[in-house]
Amino acid sequence: MTSxxxxxxxxxxxxxxASPPRKGGRLRLNHPATPYLMLAPYVVLLCAFVLGPxxxxxxxxxxxxxxxxxxxxxxxxxxxxxxxxxxxxxxxxFWKGMRATAIFVVASVPFLVLIPLxxxxxxxxxxxxxxxxxxxxxxxxxxxxxxxxxxxxxxxxSQFGLFNYLLGLVGIDPIGWTQTQPAAWVALVGMxxxxxxxxxxxxxxxxxxGIPRDHYEAASLDGAGSWNKFLYVTIPGLRNILVFILTxxxxxxxxxxxxxxxxxxxxxxxxxxxxxxxxxxxxxxxxKMGSATAMSYILAVFLIIISAINFLALREREKK
Length: 320
Description:
Elements lengths: L7 H11 L7 H4 L4 H28 L16 H6 L7 H33 L6 H9 L6 H11 L6 H8 L13 H27 L3 H9 L4 H12 L1 H16 L3 H7 L10 H11 L3 H26 L6
């Protein structure tokens, strides 16, 4: 066997090198249009289910869009003007709904931001059964709102509910959780915090695990205690996570519907009737889709402003 004879591996390598590139191989992956083809399915879905309905909704809000009418006359900004006119029939229910929404946001968001942070700090430590506790904390979040609503409707029942039974054991009179205020808000906020805190906890855990350990070691060498480490290492390291959690939690709380609909039915009176419930009543029961859509865009403007304030308040300032 001479030195010019190829081994098996060398022969395969030579054949691959000598063969021309196929059209379906690397050249196609390097084609300038490849990124756009990969994004095309997402763009199509975004336009079909987000951008398209958003633009069409603006068009609907400019008409007297009643399902029961053969024609939908164009009325311009009248639906928006009615929501700002105290004498219109849509003014009072809409702004009462916005007030109820604001109460729920203010009452629930601090708990949904701070409690998951504390739980995440605990679950980020090493101890036996840590994975099991993480699963337990996240488990309620996978349940649907229908399940949560029916569950808490029974738990909060003033006659045979578990909560009032436990209160009776310690000599406390039964509470009308869904018939009186502020008990109704306490019930709605409490069930929402229990149901959804697992999601924020998982996001916090991911952020905590992304903070380099040497930052804490450097702080320890400088004599920092646990509180100073939390203030000057943990919080700055979670800045972007805090912006995300605060923004998404405000948006989710402002769109609260299922809890109030299933547990209190907007009561007592209409004190827990949120803006989304008012829109549902206006659009799907009264068939006034034009005014209901105008309500939704006014709510969207408020949420955009609040989200921008959150971002500007928590953004990282450039050091001069």
